[in-house]
Design goal:
This protein is an alpha/beta fold. The chain is built from 9 helices and 5 strands; from the N terminus they run βββαβααααβαααα. The protein has a domain of about 120 residues. The two termini are about 20 Å apart.
């Protein structure tokens, strides 16, 4: 695949219509510095969906979302054990989440808080947190590299809210309605645009920064240089949302041409249909 552009999206599952936690960066093919897309804009999730569809049609683009595309299933055989009506493949599960979420702007808090409350950890009243810490095969692969533990979709407490962000992401994937392939649930096409799951910490680690948050122009440009990118020129110190996507866009560009990342050893056909995989993890 020959992509013309590489877009990284820092996603949000927060309630409401506009989300300060969303940031987007785009890197053109080559070595030019990545740029922030509408940096002062407060995005809605629906706007991101519309933007993605327009950009995907305009040029072959690799889009990376920093959220999980499906819950773990290989460990226990079900996404939500004891719920026989829940599908067991990712695409059907996206439709299921969408149907049970009545939140505005593709939010999914209601799915966690009401539809399937008992499966998610919201605090000490739910019992032992370790009983909720289930992971996918790709997360086990990442954790085995020693870079710290990837979060679990069943943990709904804390500022990051990885659970709500990921289930909101599944609603967006459902609303793509097959118009843009989603890897690895869909096979990567020979040409055109593709949507993948990313973990921004993986690209920060790839740049030699041990996965820590980056909050200065100096560290940002050091990371970009390690990924074969020219430096960015910003008028102010960036936020960690901004550095996450700028580094991830450059990182996606750096590895997208290497077949190794598209064929991780642990990715089986069954996992591709059910759990998916994080692009940038082998």
């Amino acid at each position: 695949m020959n992509f013309a552009r590489f877009a990284a999206i820092d996603w949000s599952g927060a309630k409401g219509k506009r989300h300060k936690g969303i940031a987007i960066a785009m890197a053109e093919a080559g070595e030019a510095a990545p740029r922030l897309v509408r940096p002062e804009h407060v995005w809605s999730r629906t706007e991101v969906l519309d933007w993605l569809l327009a950009e995907a049609a305009a040029a072959p683009t690799l889009f990376g979302f920093d959220c999980s595309f499906a819950p773990p299933i290989a460990e226990r055989g079900e996404y939500l054990p004891g719920e026989p009506e829940v599908p067991t493949d990712a695409k059907s599960f996206w439709a299921y989440v969408d149907a049970l979420s009545d939140d505005e702007d593709l939010g999914a808090a209601s799915f966690l808080e009401r539809a399937h409350r008992r499966h998610f950890y919201f605090g000490a009243a739910d019992g032992r947190k370790r009983d909720f810490l289930h992971h996918r095969a790709c997360e086990h692969a990442f954790n085995a590299t020693g870079g710290g533990k990837a979060s679990t979709l069943y943990d709904a407490i804390g500022a990051a809210q990885v659970a709500k962000a990921s289930f909101a992401g599944m609603r967006l994937l459902h609303h793509l309605a097959g118009r843009v392939p989603v890897w690895p649930m869909d096979p990567a096409p020979e040409a055109g645009s593709v949507v993948v799951e990313i973990y921004t910490r993986a690209f920060i680690r790839m740049a030699g920064l041990s996965g820590r948050k980056v909050r200065s122009r100096a560290e940002l440009n050091a990371a970009l240089a390690a990924l074969g990118s020219r430096p960015v020129r910003l008028r102010r110190e960036p936020s960690d949302h901004e550095t996450d996507v700028l580094i991830a866009a450059a990182g996606m560009r750096a590895i997208a041409g290497d077949d190794t990342w598209w064929r991780p050893p642990g990715l089986t056909p069954a996992l591709a249909r059910s759990e998916g995989w994080t692009f940038g993890v082998v």
